[in-house]
């Protein structure tokens, strides 16, 4: 991994502006950059707001062809060194907008991608969606999700972090985990479907 080639992309599926989902994505991005910097790794960070390309996502689902701002967003996400995926939780799962974006990704485009999972919701009881909905989704996509997930309920944004509000500490720990996973992973882009296909010369060898 060459210094300066590291890119961290935060995928935020918040539905409003301002959005607590975007705020959590930004905090996780900052924590990851700080952890990388502590190891002497210079990285860049970008945020993809799914809300801004929502119509393009729907059109791609209907036509099968990405257009508008969607191709650029897909390029950023699939070529990132590490991904931070944050969604609001409705009921017991991720938002429809978040899932729609994931549905327009090419198969295997997140294979081996270090991913940090985050979610926001009104009450802590929705936090189970991270392990029961988001983690299985990224496992299906063959992404490499870090152990620590971060859920932020409305009340978690109050205070500076203590035993009653561990959000800041959890954000910092999750950022460190993603940074460490990125440094151990040499990923420059999505997996090539033909990487494991033998050449004609190999097939003709006795």
TrEMBL record:
GO molecular function: oxidoreductase activity
Gene3D superfamilies: 3.40.50.360
TM region positions: none
Family matches, as InterPro entries: CE1759_FMN_reduct, Flavoprotein-like_sf, FMN_Rdtase-like_dom, NAD(P)H-dep_FMN_reductase
Domain of life from the UniProt record: Bacteria
Record has Oxidoreductase as a keyword: yes
A Pfam family it matches: FMN_red
Boundaries of every NADPH-dependent FMN reductase-like domain copy: 7-155
Keywords assigned: Flavoprotein, FMN, Oxidoreductase
Protein name: FMN reductase
Native source organism of the sequence: Phytoactinopolyspora halotolerans
Organismal lineage: Bacteria, Bacillati, Actinomycetota, Actinomycetes, Jiangellales
């Amino acid at each position: 991994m060459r210094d300066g080639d590291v890119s961290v992309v935060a995928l935020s599926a918040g539905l409003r502006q301002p959005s607590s989902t975007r705020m959590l994505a930004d905090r996780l991005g900052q924590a990851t950059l700080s952890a990388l910097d502590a190891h002497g790794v210079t990285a860049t960070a970008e945020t993809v707001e799914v809300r801004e390309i929502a119509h393009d996502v729907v059109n791609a689902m209907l036509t099968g062809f990405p257009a508008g701002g969607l191709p650029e967003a897909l390029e950023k996400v699939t070529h990132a060194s590490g991904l931070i995926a944050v969604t609001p939780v409705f009921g017991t799962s991720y938002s429809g907008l978040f899932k729609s974006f994931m549905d327009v990704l090419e198969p295997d485009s997140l294979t081996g991608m270090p991913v940090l999972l985050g979610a926001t919701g009104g009450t802590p009881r929705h936090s189970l969606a991270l392990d029961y909905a988001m983690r299985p989704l990224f496992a299906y996509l063959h992404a490499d999700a870090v152990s620590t997930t971060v859920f932020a309920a409305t009340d978690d944004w109050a205070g500076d972090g203590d035993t009653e509000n561990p959000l800041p500490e959890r954000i910092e720990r999750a950022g460190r985990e993603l940074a460490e996973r990125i440094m151990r992973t040499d990923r420059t882009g999505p997996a090539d479907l033909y990487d494991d296909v033998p050449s004609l010369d190999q097939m003709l060898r006795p």
